[in-house]
Amino acid sequence: MSDYNMVAVVKVMPTDPEVNLDELEAKLKEALPERFGLAKVEREPIAFGLVALKFYVLAKDEEGYDLDQVLEAFRNVENVESAEVETVSRI
């Protein structure tokens, strides 16, 4: 993990409140491209029972690390309504 110098918070919205978040989180972890790391996952209550997953994705500030790869992989997972980068910070 020490090789990474950036962390991006990616907010993933499920399609509806009935989605099993444990299963969705596991599928998203599998979908994360290998070159990226994962620091942690948090859950953020939104409204009306809907809960977003916030993935803290580790990357390097160099060629080959494009967060669009992560967003595309996450958006292709079943039961994902949207995936957006909230913040990017150096670590």
Provide a descriptive summary of the structure in words.
The protein is of the alpha+beta class and 91 residues long. Helix content is 22%, strand content 45%. The protein has helices at 21-31, 67-75; strands at 6-14, 37-47, 50-59, 80-90. Strands 2-3-1-4 form a 4-stranded antiparallel sheet, with helices on one face. Strand 2 (37-47) and strand 3 form a beta hairpin. The chain is globular, with a radius of gyration of 13 Å.
Give the arrangement of secondary structure elements:
Elements: E1 6-14, H1 21-31, E2 37-47, E3 50-59, H2 67-75, E4 80-90
Antiparallel strand pairs: 1-3, 1-4, 2-3
Question: Which terms summarize this structure?
Answer:
91 residues; alpha+beta; 4-stranded antiparallel sheet; 2 helices; 22% helix
Strand order of the largest sheet: 2-3-1-4
SS elements, strand count: 4
* Largest β sheet strand count, sense and barrel closure: 4 strands, antiparallel
- Distance, first to last CA: 11 Å
What gross morphology would you assign?
A: globular
Strand content: over 45%
Mean pLDDT: 95
Radius of gyration: 13 Å
Counted by DSSP, the helix tally is 2
> What class, by secondary structure content?
alpha+beta
Order of helices and strands: EHEEHE
Q: What portion of residues is helical?
A: 10-25%
Low-confidence stretches: none
Short précis:
The chain is α+β, with helices and mostly antiparallel strands and 91 residues long. The protein contains 2 helices and 4 strands. It has a 4-stranded antiparallel sheet with strand order 2-3-1-4, covered by helices on one side.
